[in-house]
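Students often ask why we bother encoding 3D structure as a string. The short answer is that it lets us treat folding as translation between two languages. Here is a chain of 383 residues written in the first language.
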Amino acid sequence: MNSKILLKDHMSFYKNISSTNSKVAGSGAIPSSVVHGDNYDQDSVSIGEDNVGQIVMALESFKKLHDEYNSNYKGGLLLIDEVDAALFPAAQKRLIDVLKEYSETYNIQIVMTSHSPTMIQYLEKLGPNAGKIIPLFYEQGILKTGDKKFSEIESDLLAQLPINSSIKIRCYLEDSEASELFKAILNENDTGKRILNKKIEIMDVSMGSKNYIHLIDKGVPEFKDLSLVILDGDESSDNSTIIKLPFCVPPDQLLFEFLFILNNDDPFWAEINTSKQVFFNDFGKPVIQYFELNSQMNLLSLREKIQLKKGPERDRDLEDKAREIFKKFYKHSFIQGLLESENTNPFNELIKRKFDADQQSLSDFITKINDKINNKVKQFYQS
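And here it is in the second language, the structure alphabet:
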């Protein structure tokens, strides 16, 4: 039987090898179920052969009890630790077949442990009549049991992210405009779309960057370990747990700049059913007046003018005033209405045109987000 399990029963080398008695170091002999003979002794037996030999011996012991006690035989219990130890995949499957056969024939309940994806998947394919798989796993430091699909069990064994993980990582941004820009960036490629649809939950929380940084520095687990904190690109913090949006100005200012730079005859104005002149005479007028802008400015001169109004030393009061002006622009009901449609959402158009960002910087940002999420999920499964 040992040769059968190890798929050696068809090999001519083993056909003249018996499996009756085996000499061991010292004196005497013991019965053995490991293949051996004059040209293949205990020194040649592998760990896999030896382990299978012990299992075969236990199975034959139940058979002997069954044959000797007849109607008084009630079956038994066989415990096997690391049943797959030192066995190659095909032998693992053959061993399962043998265990199943003996279990059914001699009424043996077999309880075994294994770390082999091959063996667990094979047992799952055989169905519930072959046996029940009970995974043991740690979840946030607590040992648990429960039903898991093979893909989840395999991920635990290989310490990798499940292919179809149901875990979603919470994402915190500073405000709704940052969330809208973040979603527009993720929609830029397939990886980003998978992140947006399956891997994250964007939290409806508005909190300033200083508050997030304070919570992370204080070691609050929700913000330091369990979630992603994504701040505007103008934030100066170099905290390694924080990710910054790939733009050097806040999202509301970026949105204004994009629309302000568009040509009068740009097709986007027709898409949103207005003209550039009407738009900035109405919705954008407070921003133009406060920063003293004119229609001849390009992006560079526009930003220089805005920065000048904030003060050369980045005066806090002046910066807060400038941010308030841009926020009012963003929160205008007309702008909010544009955000409700994919075709009229100016953040989508901004990203589509690579305004103030190139393809590589957007792709790198999405890759960084994806890597951070995968690491967070791994930490969750390993904790």
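Translate back mentally: Residues 11-30 have pLDDT under 50 and may be disordered. Keep this in mind for the problem set.
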